Amino acid sequence: MSKKKIKVYIRFYASRIKYGLMTLDEVPEKYREAVEEFMKTDEYLMM
Q: How many domains does the chain have?
């Protein structure tokens, strides 16, 4: 899978978590660590 596609998935899961549609436990194991890291960034806070 390309890096660009992975970034899209990370943003998708992070935005669903931010708006209460998912929890971190529901994110597939493959993306969980990357989503946790993304949630610490300013880009996540400004979503």
A: 1
Residue 22 CB coordination number (10 Å): 16
pTM: 0.88
Question: Residue 12 sits in which domain range?
Answer: 3-45
Q: From residue 38, how far is each of 18, 30 by CA, in Å? A: 12, 14
% helix / strand / coil in the chain, to the nearest 5? 70, 0, 30
Per residue of the chain (47 residues), what is the pLDDT tens digit? 899 999 999 999 999 999 999 999 999 999 999 999 999 999 999 98
